[in-house]
Amino acid sequence: MFDTIERNLFSVVMAPTGSGKSRFAIYRHKILNTFSKVLHVLPMRSLIEDLVVDLACTYGTEVVGYQASIPSISFIKEGDTCEYVDPLNNIKVSQSVDHDPFMLHPYIVTTYDSYSLSMLLAPIPEISYARYGHTDLAIALVGQGLNMFDEIHLLAPDVERSSVEFKSDEVKAWSFVAAATRIITELEGRVLYSSATVKPEHLLLVAKLVGIKPSLIFVASNWILERLRQYDVPVEFLDVEDEASDIIETYLSNLSTLIDAREPYEIVSEVCCRELFPRVLVVLNSVSRAAEVYDRIVALCRDKGYEVLLVHGRMSHLHRSSIMAKLRSLAKERSRFVLVATQVIEAGIDLDADVLISDIAPIDSLVQRAGRVLRHSIDRKSEVIVSVSRKAIEICKRIYGASCTTIAEMLKNLTDKCSGKVDWRYTAPRKCSVYKLLLRSMSPKEYGHLEKAVYHTMNGFLEFMLTSIGKSLNERIRLFDEIYKGSAVRDSLRIPLLVRWRNRDDIVEVPPWYAKKLASKGYLKSIVINVIAANRELKKRVSLEHPAYAFRILEEFEKNPLQTTRKLMKKLTKALMWQSAGEVNIRVEGFELAEGVYDEVRGLA
């Protein structure tokens, strides 16, 4: 497998959840001898810390860096193992990984947001304030080595949308992958896309538009190979039924799937009351729903001896990192816990639960969630329980724009047919694998619509890059905002909010619609900036005289996020230069949230 990736310009790996796809480079120690550069791109910032620590433990902090809005990543190394340091623990004998916004370390871990902005516009620090942007730097870097794209379809939604809007986001993301792959391969760089759930049609569409046949590396059942034969592409195939039949048999004998009409909190309450499983994972489709379930079950489950934790995407960095550190400690001590979460745990988090209780969701999301069950050991009884309550189906449809009633019916039929012995991981046996639902062939009409949309949007990315050569960064940002609303891969950029958590300053990023909701209530009091003048750096708060002012800024940000940020910095810089009678440089950290709005346990729920 490794030789195939090193030899070909474009490779695709599809393997079960928990098989180590994201940690490919850790197992392939000589990867940096083969490639002078590795850029590892993840769908969510919350996935970066664990991977960065594992990589730095293997290669060293002088080799590994990260590009994301995370203040710091530290770890302790003992022998050959490393442990992430809880930011609340004042441990001085730890090692730190460099934050590298220009992506200069040999091995960089980043997000699709940061990667795409660097590639299409300029390195992240230059976008905020520079007159000229060095797009050539990112282009040179991506053409040097291996670009590893992880699970782009897991860019988690944080907004209710129609099916048309959801499909539009899907097209946007896949179009960027196609455009990036074309540029990288023309520069003789390498692209590796890895996934547990992607449809072959998506990847083969990218290959068609790029003009390169990918080398497919599939760890799956033989019926998947039969599907791939129609596409005339080279496939390196490992048949799991030949290689791991005993493992599959044990997995299926120990895992039961139930489709339950009750609300998730009712199911969790029963699990805690009867003390059925020691490690319980609950995944909900929205932050408000996760907070509601947490509030309903926390007292009952704690009375039964469970540690109850809540984690979601509207928590500050320190808050979320502290919870994940606590979770690792509980797992290491084999203590009982209930983790209530949203989509932030769907990929990359090395969690081994005994039972999953999940809202109904699209099949690919359910596969990722079920991948957190029986992850390290399969020699114990476990369950996957999917709530198909009326409310769960309604919220699923609002969040994903999917036909969740149909998904629920298909899952119910499959579960009944297989007496609850459903495969969520190995694609085998075919008749009882949820992959049969996930990887159903697209109709010619559906594929045609997708191809037309992705082709048009991919060419838009390529045209943007060509026509923006020679233009000022201001002009390129104006065009980018006009076409892409500040993001090449998702619905919009996020708004940074400054909060106090356990007497520490921290940042939580939220979508514009949620920031406007806070502003309308008068909760955004000031803009916090870092001012560098006369070789001194200090934090300054610029008061927002009226709540309506914050709302107007956010409305402008929603329309033109990057332009609004630059205009705001220019205005503040001019005012501060007048006050200090000298040259100043500033960096906008974000809006300061009023005291008491951010909850120490629930975050912004």
Please characterize this protein's 3D structure:
The protein is an alpha/beta fold. It is 44% helix and 21% strand. It folds into three domains: 2-73 and 100-243, P-loop containing nucleotide triphosphate hydrolases (Rossmann fold, 3-Layer(aba) Sandwich); 254-438, P-loop containing nucleotide triphosphate hydrolases (Rossmann fold), CATH 3.40.50.300; 495-593, no CATH class. The model is unreliable at 156-166 (pLDDT under 50).
Q: In brief, what are we looking at here?
A:
By secondary structure, the protein is α/β, with parallel strands linked by helices.
Quickly list its features.
605 residues, alpha/beta, Rossmann fold, 3 domains, eleven-stranded mixed beta sheet, globular
